[in-house]
Amino acid sequence: MGAALALARRGHEVTLLEAFAAPRPLGSGLLLQPTGLKALSTLGLVDTIRAAGARIDRLDGRDLTGRKVLDVNYADWRKGGHGIGIHRAALFDALHQAMPAAGVTLITGARIIRIEDQRRPVLHDDLGRAHGPFDLAVVADGSASSLRKSVKPGSRARPYPWGAVWANAPDPGGLWNGALSQVYDRAEVMVGVLPVGRGPDTGERLVSLFWSLPVAEMGAFYAGDFDAWKARVRGIWPAITPLLESLTDPAVMARAVYRDVWVGRWNRDATLLIGDAAHGTSPQLGQGANLALVDAVELGERFSGTTTSVAVTAAAYEAGRRRHVMIYQFVSWAMTPLFQSHGGFWAGVRRWLFTPLSRAPGIRQLGAAILTGTARLGRWPDATRP
Ligand SMILES: Cc1cc2nc3c(=O)[nH]c(=O)nc-3n(C[C@H](O)[C@H](O)[C@H](O)COP(=O)(O)OP(=O)(O)OC[C@H]3O[C@@H](n4cnc5c(N)ncnc54)[C@H](O)[C@@H]3O)c2cc1C
């Protein structure tokens, strides 16, 4: 939706083909970084998002003894810097509601199963309809993309062995305001709380609560004793008890799995992968939606008033985006075992190397640049400079 808006605002005729019969948001909450907020500002949506979301000033991660493992402040990046925790439905609604005015044609119930002619793409859906031909096909079908292989046959999308379950819980007193808080037990347990502002249905103040677990154990989690799980989490982090009370059934917890996506070049002729379809990572750094929003806005800019061919413009676009995205692909990949793995090795690396190093002068600022999503090799374009 972000890419459709950015391109339509630049005067292109845009058709958005979406698999869902009725568009709807998935999951619970996410953290918008200064990069994502700047992209939303360029799309004219940031005020709506700020009104709905919750300001986040720091990331606070502790072990069971209360010792700080992760302590990053947005102020170390820039005075007044912050993120916004947002309910996914609020971000979804803001983008969705802006599309008619921007002139985007939305066709739902159109699951694309085949792309014919990558130079002048025609998209075929599962109901036998053909859409196009188009000058450019932007493939933004997420990390589980079924179209990626047809664009880039050599691409890989390795599933991570660990995932998470998520749910929203009411926080009427705003007790969790200001921080993304996490508690770890070695690298095997991670439980977190992210304030996400007002829920779209009831308007009550919410937090997203997440619990990390191996994908192989998800079936047992959903079939298992939910009260025993809640008792375990209470034991790990007593302060979370009031949030657990609203969770009555494992079915309220959304299942999240992620993939490590490597595609090489993002485009083939006039067919271009963006977002998670091009560069999905683990959500350890909370960057995926932000990278996707920046992808969207820079796409609109790059395809504005250009006289070169679509394929050449797409390749230049990818080269620019890669200077940002590659940092996050690498750091997310490298950091994930420190927070999601079995045994004591990676937890030891975190405790003896990562945490002390992250406090060192200079490294703290680097950590803040990485957390805020603002680390990039080379210059930021004006439209996305945070
Ligand atoms: C547990 C978890 C926590 C996360 N936390 C954060 C966070 O705090 N901050 C952050 O920035 N990111 C976070 N992310 C990552 C973020 O959710 C993704 O990076 C982001 O949603 C990617 O956006 P996208 O548009 O590329 O893909 P998606 O959001 O996956 O959207 C893909 C769209 O394509 C449609 N589609 C799929 N296949 C087809 C088809 N064949 N034809 C037509 N349509 C199709 C789908 O219906 C969907 O609408 C998290 C992810 C997970 C799993």
Q: What is this entry, summarized?
A:
The protein is of the alpha+beta class and 386 residues long. The protein has helices spanning 2-9, 34-42, 46-52, 88-102, 148-151, 218-223, 226-236, 241-245, 276-279, 288-302, 310-339, 345-358, 363-371, and strands at residues 15-17, 29-32, 54-63, 68-73, 83-87, 105-107, 112-116, 122-125, 130-131, 137-139, 156-159, 162-170, 178-185, 189-198, 205-214, 254-256, 259-262, 267-268, 271-273. Strands 2, 3, 4, 5, 12, 13, 14, 15 and 16 form a nine-stranded mixed β-sheet that branches. A three-stranded antiparallel β-sheet has the order 7-8-9, with no helix packed on it.
What does this structure look like?
The protein has helices at residues 2-9, 34-42, 46-52, 88-102, 148-151, 218-223, 226-236, 241-245, 276-279, 288-302, 310-339, 345-358, 363-371, and strands at 15-17, 29-32, 54-63, 68-73, 83-87, 105-107, 112-116, 122-125, 130-131, 137-139, 156-159, 162-170, 178-185, 189-198, 205-214, 254-256, 259-262, 267-268, 271-273. The relative contact order is 0.18. Helices cover 35% and strands 25% of the residues. β3 and β4 form a beta hairpin. The protein is of the alpha+beta class and 386 residues long. The longest helix has 30 residues, at 310-339. The chain folds into 2 domains: 2-55 and 89-159 and 260-371, FAD/NAD(P)-binding domain (3-Layer(bba) Sandwich), CATH 3.50.50.60; 162-256, no CATH class. α1 (2-9) packs parallel to α10 (288-302), α2 (34-42) packs parallel to α10 and α10 runs antiparallel to α11. The model has no long low-confidence stretch (mean pLDDT 93). The protein has 13 helices and 19 strands. Strands 2, 3, 4, 5, 12, 13, 14, 15 and 16 form a 9-stranded mixed sheet that branches. The protein has a 3-stranded antiparallel sheet with strand order 7-8-9, with no helix packed on it. The chain has a 3-stranded mixed sheet with strand order 10-19-18. It is globular, with a radius of gyration of 21 Å. Bound molecules: flavin-adenine dinucleotide.
